[in-house]
Structure formats: C-alpha cells, structure tokens
C-alpha cells in the first residue's frame, strides 16, 4: 500500500481554498487543507513544485515518519507556507488511515473524551443595536459563547465588523477582499485605526452586553495584534468586571515576552497563536504559563500530528485548546480540528464560523452543529469529501487581507 498520486486543487467557492488530494495504489483517497488566506498560491507551489513528487511511492501508513521527512528533512524549516503544506499531507494521511480502518478519525486519536465541542460564534455590529441583534440571533440558535467585535466611533472600518452584514445572517465576515466587482485584487485594501478611541469604547460595550445578556453567556474578544503591551494590560484589566472567556491576540504575537506584562496586571484569560505555526512559537508562553488557550489551526501548524503534540505539551501546564476556525480554514481543516478536539483531554472551545452554502456544496461535510456544540460525525476518516467537478467551476481569484494605518498615515498591525 503506497501513495500513487498527489494533486493540489485550488478552488474559490465564495473564497479561496487550497486542498491536497492523496490517492493510494488501491484507491483510497485522503484530503488535506493547505489554505493560507491571501497567500494561497505560495502553498500550492510549495506542495506542487517541491513535495508532491517525493510523496509518490511512499508508504501511506508512516504518518510520523512522513511528517519528520518533510519537516526535519527540510533545511529551511517552519514558517506558515511550509507548515500549511506539511499540514495538508498529514491530514490527508490520517484521513486515509481512518478510512481504511473504517472509523471516524477521532477513534484513532484516542476516542471521544466528550460528547461534543462547545463552539463560539462571531457576533459583530457597527453600533450597539446591530451588535445586540447579532448576539440575540446566536443565543436563539443555542450558542453558549460569542465573540464580540464592534465598530469604534470615528473609525471607518474595524477588524471583525463587516460593512455589509445583516443581523442573524449565517455568515457575515471574510476579511480578505477581492477587487472591484469580484475581480482579482491587485493589492490589499487599507483600513484605519486609533488605539485611544478603541480603548475608551470597548469596555462600555462589554458593560452593555453583560447588562443585556446576563452573566451566563461566555464572551470573547479579539484585539487582533493592535496594542502595545501596556495598552493591552490596561484593556485586560478594564474588561475584568465583564468576565471574559478570553481576550485574544491583543499584542503582535511574535513577541512572546509582551504577554508577561499583560499577565502581571490582569486575571482576564488570554489566548494567542492563530498566526503561529510551530510549538517553538509557544515555548515561553506555555512553560511560563503566560496564556490560557492555544489558538493554532491544524491547517497552519503542521497538521494533526504536530497539533496533538503541541496540545499535549500545553496540557501539562493546564493550558487548553481554542483552535482557529474562521472561514479561511477549509471544511477539511475544520473537520481535522473537530476530531482532534473531541479526542484530547484539554479541549477548551472551538471557533466556528459556518462556511457559505456555496463552499459547503463543494466540500461535503459530516460534522454537525447542535445547540451550541459541534460533532465531527461518524463517517470514516475526516468526514469531508471535495466535489472536484464542482470545485473546477470556481477558479482562484486573488484576494488579500487588509493593511492598517494609524490616523497619521503610518502603517500599523492589522
Ligand atoms: C480569528 C481571526 C481571523 C483572522 C483571519 C485572517 O480570530 O478568527 O482573527 O478572523 O483575521 O483568519 O485570515
Ligand atoms: Mg483572531
């Protein structure tokens, strides 16, 4: 039993996705997600031009050895492009192994540790009325946790708030933008930012939300890398009365030491890591207990093999999972997170932004939402199949994440 074919498929059913299809010589097919928002073709090239030929003829069963071959075997290792490519190979091999065994993947990862995975939804609104209606819509669907993002007076566009979303809409926020009339983008759009206005506004919003929705609802917030350490410490402290489930990425994530300052000043739980791609990005954060939740995506962190090790390491320090799950993780990457999250002991919460109907026609999924919880389903493997004919009808269209500028025109973290 060996790998007879590996193919990279780029498709854009509503947004761009990069998928790896691995086929064995006796006809099993495994799928892997390699989507890196706004840099899709780099991963497609890394896979297609450099890794796929070395996959042909390999023993499909040797998942750990294959992971080491592409990670340790590469002199230029780590980075989001490399680790998304390795992740796709790893996911596809786990998919095949579970399909061959005839079991849903979580059974090979130790079996279920829970009945379902608590998820959080994205509630956003340009003003409080819109935000409140969005939260109400999720509460009515049974969600027990919501992420709160809101417009800031004086700013034109704010991370996490769609200019076009209507309350209750199933999917409303995709930060990567195509060009005019859906054509290929040639460069990122520009947004504006003012930390002073944000810091004054956001605690009042959380006060209103707590007053309206009571103490039971779990509330989350994403700072999206925009604050200095001392500003982030002030934010975390000012949000303490509103009992957040977590405050995410308030400082640029590459500076692990920055989080120490926030920690020293506040008991608000902290989450980080969606832009990380290896356990080494977390070393200080985990061993010094500076965070409470690991935000990595299976898709961007080397796949199930690497994420399992990272989360086991975090678990030793009482740190739990909060795997990245926006719509730029394909349904295949989402399914991988769900199988892993169901199996591990130190699961925390799962981010869930439902994909558009168009995306879900191309990627047929077995995972299901029920009253605030997701379950990966009982289909053998990951439980996601790509309809290749339909996928071919949605060609890649360049789209970029925005860049951010302060009001004086200088560039800031987005
Ligand atoms: C989140 C993230 C995303 C990112 C997106 C970029 O917490 O879900 O911050 O919304 O902005 O993944 O591609
Ligand atoms: Mg985030």
Automatic annotation (TrEMBL):
InterPro entries to which the protein is assigned, alphabetical: D-mannonate_dehydratase-like, DgoD-like, Enolase-like_C_sf, Enolase-like_N, Enolase_C-like, Mandel_Rmase/mucon_lact_enz_CS, Mandelate_racemase_C, Mandelate_racemase_N_dom
Gene Ontology BP annotations: amino acid catabolic process; carbohydrate catabolic process
Report a single Gene Ontology molecular function.
Answer: magnesium ion binding
Which NCBIfam families does this entry report, sorted A to Z? Answer: ManoateDhtManD, PRK15072.1
Q: Which domain of life is it from?
A: Bacteria
Protein name per its UniProtKB record = D-mannonate dehydratase
Q: Could you tell me which residue ranges the Mandelate racemase/muconate lactonizing enzyme C-terminal domain spans?
A: 128-269
Give TM regions: none
